[in-house]
Amino acid sequence: MVLKGQEVELHCDGGGSIDIEADDVVLAVTGSCQEIEVMGFGITLDAEGVDKLDVSGSGNTVRAADAAELRVDGADNSIMLGTVGEIDAEGAGNSISYRAGGSEIADEGSGNTISTG
Fold this sequence. Notes:
The protein is mostly beta strands. The protein has one domain. Helices cover 0% and strands 65% of the residues. Strands 1, 2, 3, 4, 5, 6, 7 and 8 form an eight-stranded parallel β-sheet that branches.
C-alpha cells in the first residue's frame, strides 16, 4: 500500500515489472527493470534502467537513465531520458526529452514536444 505523498524506494533485480497505480507519490527505482508502468496523477519517478516504460497517467514527472522503449498515452507529462531506443507518443501535451538514441519516433498524439538535448 502506498499513501498519497509517500516516498518509496524500489529495486529491480535482474528484471521484474513495476505497476504504479497511485497519485502524488515519489518513487526511486534502482537496478534494471523489464517494465515500469505509470498509471497515476502527479507521480515523480526516477529510474535507472528499464526495457519498456509506459506512461498512461497525467501530470507526472518521469526521469530514467536508459529506456529501450517509451510509450506515452497520458497527458501533460514531463519525461526526461538519458538514452532511449524507440518513442511512441499517443497522448497530448507531453514533453519528452532525451540525450541519445531515438532511433524510431512516432508522435500520433497532439501538442507533444519531443526533443534531444
